[in-house]
Amino acid sequence: MSRDDVTVRRAHDADARAAADVWLRSYAAALPSVRCAHSAAEVRNWFANVLIPQYETWVAVAGNTVVGLLVLNGRDLKQLYLDPSWRGRGLGDRFVTLAKQRRPDGLSLSTFQVNGPARRFYERHGFTEAERTDGQGNDEREPDIRYVWAPRTS
């Protein structure tokens, strides 16, 4: 199945478990050295009771399967996670394009310093480093980087 066979749409309450499971698989694959601060049950509860009902949450669906998610909150790109089998297939690019369309005045996000692939991905999409932290502001206590994207003005 190609990225063209994937539908990107707003998440529904019924997507919460599948989206949380994508998050859990992606986190484990992309960040094996970073302690996950929450149990699988807590992550699923967070998706069902916070992310999907309170934030602008989008899912990528292939067939009947959720394979990716994007969460926006104001100017913050809060989450962008893909099922590990969908990495490198252009789906992340689609999500970033959508985020920029939804927030044409600019975006910001944080990613862990150890996540080189995510850092390269966001930099390739025009995000620039704005701040490095020691991680005291995130649940994992992992040093991170704040990135920003601003549209080009002509």
Query: Biggest sheet, open or closed, and with what strands and sense?
Result: 4 strands, antiparallel
Strands side by side in the biggest sheet: 1-2-3-4
Strand fraction:
25-35%
Shape: globular
What are the defining features of this structure?
alpha+beta, 154 residues, 33% helix
Explained architecture:
With 154 residues, this protein is of the alpha+beta class. Helix content is 33%, strand content 30%. The chain is built from four helices and seven strands. The protein has helices at 16-30, 40-54, 91-102, 116-124; strands at 6-10, 56-62, 65-73, 76-82, 107-112, 128-133, 144-149. The strands form two sheets. A four-stranded antiparallel beta sheet has the order 1-2-3-4, with helices on both faces. Strands 5-7-6 form a three-stranded antiparallel beta sheet, with helices on one face. Strand 2 (56-62) and strand 3 form a beta hairpin. Helix 1 crosses helix 2 (40-54). The termini are far apart. The model has no long low-confidence stretch (mean pLDDT 94).
What's the short story on this structure?
The chain is an alpha+beta fold. It has helices spanning 16-30, 40-54, 91-102, 116-124; strands at 6-10, 56-62, 65-73, 76-82, 107-112, 128-133, 144-149.
